[in-house]
Design goal:
Elements lengths: L2 H50 L17 E11 L7 E3 L7 E4 L11 E2 L2 E14 L1 H5 L8 E7 L2 E8 L4 E4 L5 E3 L2 E11 L4 E11 L2
Parallel strand pairs: 3-11
Antiparallel strand pairs: 1-2, 1-5, 4-5, 5-8, 5-9, 6-7, 6-10, 10-11
Length: about 210
Amino acid sequence: MADGSSQGLFVVVAIVIFGIFVFISYLLFKDTLKPSLANIYCDSFEQVGEDTNLLDGSEGNCVGKFHNSFEVKGYIGIWFQNVYAGPDIWTPDNTGMRTINLKKLSSVSMPIIEDGYVLIDAISDNNVGVKQEAIDKGFGNNQNRSTTIDINGVSYRFSEVSYGNGYYKLSEGARMKVNAINHIKITYTNVHGGKTTYNIQVKIINE
């Protein structure tokens, strides 16, 4: 066989082997690769649109951003200092404002109230997962997320968790106003930068 033919055969074999390697890698890591590649193409589309005005805007909000990819399938609860009680403040079937009567939380002990505020120990969530539509768009079922909790304008940030349930221990002095409507915003950030936000209203009474 001539040298040229040998080299050509070698190139063909190398291409086939490389193709098999790429295919196997795709099968093994497609859930990880799809969002990353989607983000790259999404950013490219947006850059082209800004620089050339050639796109009509219908490609906006690329799926690669993966905003609103998470959903709380269980509940979001609140924990008061000095009371082992975590009443729900949000559930999928009741997303409206919740009213919590501090005097009805426990027959053993009362929450700590200081200067018209009740002290908060933690916020918890249960069964947080990826929406099916996000999975269908290539996100995968990766539920790793970092969490930011904002209570009446005061923010608390928590590092990434990798499971469906979270217990977010707040710093000393976390509090909510008694006899008033309190605003809680919980934002989950997925591993690709997409954000999912829950806005919750809680009225605290003590009567």
